[in-house]
Amino acid sequence: MSLRTGTRGETVPPVPSAHAAEDTADRAPGVDIAALLERGRTMTAPVLRAAVDRLAPPMDTVASYHFGWIDAQGRPADGDGGKAVRPALALLSAEAAGAPAEVGVPGAVAVELVHNFSLLHDDLMDGDEQRRHRDTVWKVHGPAQAILVGDALFALAGEVLLELGTVEAGRAARRLTVATRKLIDGQAQDISYEHRERVTVEECLEMEGNKTGALLACAVSIGAVLGGADDRVADRLEAYGHHLGLAFQAIDDLLGIWGDPEATGKQTWSDLRQRKKSLPVVAALAAEGPAAARLGELLAADAKSSDVENFSEEEFAARAALIEEAGGREWTVQEARRQHAVAIEALDSVDMPGHIRDQLAALADFVVVRKR
Amino acid sequence: MSLRTGTRGETVPPVPSAHAAEDTADRAPGVDIAALLERGRTMTAPVLRAAVDRLAPPMDTVASYHFGWIDAQGRPADGDGGKAVRPALALLSAEAAGAPAEVGVPGAVAVELVHNFSLLHDDLMDGDEQRRHRDTVWKVHGPAQAILVGDALFALAGEVLLELGTVEAGRAARRLTVATRKLIDGQAQDISYEHRERVTVEECLEMEGNKTGALLACAVSIGAVLGGADDRVADRLEAYGHHLGLAFQAIDDLLGIWGDPEATGKQTWSDLRQRKKSLPVVAALAAEGPAAARLGELLAADAKSSDVENFSEEEFAARAALIEEAGGREWTVQEARRQHAVAIEALDSVDMPGHIRDQLAALADFVVVRKR
């Protein structure tokens, strides 16, 4: 497979810049991304906290630690709760259907709860010790609490929606449940790929569509569904969210290898440490030439090794250099750009107020240019 | 606290027999319990299997192993899928509301999915190696699969209900979600009690009400809700199920100490091995006299020990003998009888066809006299 060919066979033009959306950053010049994210955070936070407060001790404390509201000693903290892209999307989703942003709040909270349920369980399954610059829940509070609190957040998500008691809430809960199952499918695929020698680009994209695309898609439809949008509109919004998720994940895959630990809050080479078959890796392996061949040999040996976590910085750096030399890094940059373009196309197939469209487009740009 | 006093202070009369419901066993002489359980199993199984078939590999295989449909090598098995009390209850629940049993099927399946989600996660958290006479999922397929497949079954439960697309399904899903969160609360309490020196009888009953009562209560209301029953009827049916669950759990607690491993499928003294603060233990500790005092000393030391799992049979037998001597065994037998009586009282507060009432009453008797 040529690295200059997209997954559906289209030719992806070479780009001069590593920032796929650099040339799109001024598409919606009037949009204040920081304010948009802040609105999502501010409107969602009290409802999210009230939901978490319902948990029986010590799960309320463990969840508060996970969300960054308290530190490991239980002292109030002003933690990094993540970028809050999903809440911002859920509120815009309601507005896209002509409803006030408030209508999207239970959807935003439910999506955040599911997202954090998956983080708690994934960190444990993956053995990740750091998240958002802090020790992960299973490291601080033990595996049982990570499992339990994850389960509890998932259940809370259903509660927050279904207690609205409306037909729309039932439809929203159904979409969220389906998205959650895709997310779990994606994690299952991700884990199974770690011990496989070969994973195709198509398999990787399917996994990432499940693991990242499905919930982002749901964030973009859930507000609209709560606001009364029909399934056709919801499906198109989900298409935008799905491709946005794939663009987001392509960037995440780049950061998982070449990201600055200071900025990502993860270890250096974190995806290589975990033998993740992420996009740069599978794209590099699918290439031709000596770098791809050498990388293939190394990773085939690594797949059988139980010693990968003890590799030196140099050993990881050598693998990263081969991935780049084989074109895996550049292909992934291009893939992010391609998914971004498809997302915008889907967005423009939905009839909505122009300023809402511009804000959704600006969020897509933000996701693709983000450095963390 | 006197062991001859119930949890709300009522005096519980002494009984001559260890089988709490022996004298009630012929209350509904016309009811064929085996046929009732078989109907629940037969009507639920195809829908349950179809739901599990939706899971991405290898989760479908892991779930099939858990349900006993295949063995660890993937060969078809005719496994012990449990007594299937919950499906039987969910179908009767629909009939109690005047709907055909079929209406309860999605509810029965959803409750079974949630029940098995909790078994998968609890076995991992508790380190239980055996369930239904077979190695548990985490022992055979590893902790990650136990977490993932549990998550997937929980999500499937929501899907199975919500794809009905009716207002009733939304109400049923809400009740199921609330019950699931109670179940998680109960597991959190159970875990936290293992390392505490003292747990009151009240705390233990609250924990068991969450861990066992809530989902059984939901099984008894979910069919009725799907059949159009109002919240008042659903709440009363849940009261019956809640107390039935507490009776069930009291028996389970007896079996957790004195049960025959051949019949229970668990290790001998399994609850003592895990330092479970189950009803016989907390009731014995709350008693007066030398046996209770000696038991208190032993368990206080055990709570600080990391060596409990390596105790000899004699050491566990000595603890069990002290629990019995202090009256904890007899009190728990009485408690099962008391909860059974309250359950029947709640049942009789609901207006329903007489033969359905008799079948629900007979199931309550069955649960309390069961030896496994």
Automatic annotation (TrEMBL), chains A, B:
InterPro entries: Isoprenoid_synthase_dom_sf, Polyprenyl_synt, Polyprenyl_synt_CS. The keyword Magnesium applies. Keywords: Magnesium, Metal-binding, Transferase. Residues 1-26 are annotated as: Disordered. Belongs to the FPP/GGPP synthase family. PANTHER family: (2E,6E)-FARNESYL DIPHOSPHATE SYNTHASE (PTHR12001:SF71), GERANYLGERANYL PYROPHOSPHATE SYNTHASE (PTHR12001). This is Polyprenyl synthetase family protein.
